[in-house]
Design goal:
This protein is mainly α. The protein contains 15 helices and 2 strands. It has one domain. The protein is globular.
Length: 303
């Protein structure tokens, strides 16, 4: 029971990380020592697993799936997501520069933390780093402030975002941020919109089954290259988080509210001293949080 409680709270930590754009649930899994078991358990979800269910019954199916482990992690993640959704939504609406400053610091520190795990920054790894920066920068500039809210796009958003959950370095919520679906999904969780959440969940399940093996293979065989690419991606994506923006085009959404469609990052206005100070302070706070987690992880590994 003690182990299950500990595992549950590791799941809570993963869920808390994934709902914040900047920290990966995969990174938390790596730090807490459950990453390898998580990957192997997810890889067990295949056609032969369901053959076991029909041939030898639920007990063997559950054992082969490592069901107790996955269920406990899932319950922890789900609890964190639903508990934090209201808080995040409130902060985005009422403390914009503070929360984006925190996210900025989390992403910046995560980028350097992942880069430090590269064994040696060779020319090839440096190229992957630059590619990550350029690609993420282009996506951040080119992706609109608003994307479709159709079931197909919500499904695809879930399929893409879930891959980040099992890959250390980048969070699923950050992928949603790039797809301009972060606040949309947060609000769906907050209002418990079962239609949107069901479509999103189905996308997550499909993405997890399809991409887990690909990501596992790449991380196992091309670790340094993938870590370099992820670091670059995080650095380039800071453009998307930068809260000081000039709105070029707006529209009235389905709720009758004016929302930005096309924006461009700009330097902060010197007259907005309070916003600038809050952004800097919370950026530093976010950076310190990641460094604290990294230091704690190193101490635990030494023990």
């Amino acid at each position: 029971m003690k182990e299950k409680i500990g595992l549950f709270f590791k799941g809570v930590a993963m869920g808390a990380a994934d709902i914040v754009p900047g920290v990966s649930g995969g990174t938390i899994a790596l730090i807490t020592g459950i990453y390898e078991e998580l990957i192997e358990s997810i890889k067990n979800i295949n056609f032969s697993l369901f053959q076991t269910l029909f041939k030898t019954g639920v007990k063997d199916f559950w054992k082969k799936l490592n069901g107790n482990f996955l269920l406990t992690i899932y319950l922890g993640i789900t609890a964190a997501v639903f508990l934090l959704a209201n808080l995040i939504s409130y902060l985005l609406s009422n403390h914009e520069y503070k929360i984006w400053g925190l996210f900025f610091g989390l992403v910046l520190a995560s980028a350097f933390m992942i880069l430090n795990q590269v064994e040696k920054l060779t020319n090839k790894n440096f190229v992957f780093l630059v590619i990550g920066i350029v690609v993420a920068g282009l996506i951040s500039f080119l992706s609109p402030a608003s994307t479709p809210e159709t079931p197909i796009f919500v499904f695809l958003s879930g399929s893409i975002a879930i891959t980040a959950t099992i890959l250390p370095g980048i969070s699923g919520s950050f992928i949603l941020l790039l797809l301009s679906k972060y606040e949309f999904i947060i609000n769906a969780i907050k209002s418990f919109d079962l239609q949107i959440l069901s479509i999103f969940a189905l996308g997550c399940i499909l993405g997890l089954i399809i991409f887990s093996r690909v990501l596992s293979f790449m991380f196992t065989n091309f670790k340094n290259e993938i870590l370099s690419l992820l670091s670059g991606f995080l650095i380039g994506s800071l453009i998307k988080i930068w809260p000081f923006r000039n709105v070029l085009e707006s529209r009235v959404n389905s709720e009758g509210q004016l929302e930005a469609v096309v924006t461009r990052p700009e330097l902060p206005n010197a007259t907005n001293v309070e916003e600038i100070i809050f952004f800097i302070v919370f950026t530093i706070f976010g950076y310190v949080i990641i460094n604290f987690l990294q230091k704690k992880s190193l101490e635990d590994n030494k023990e």
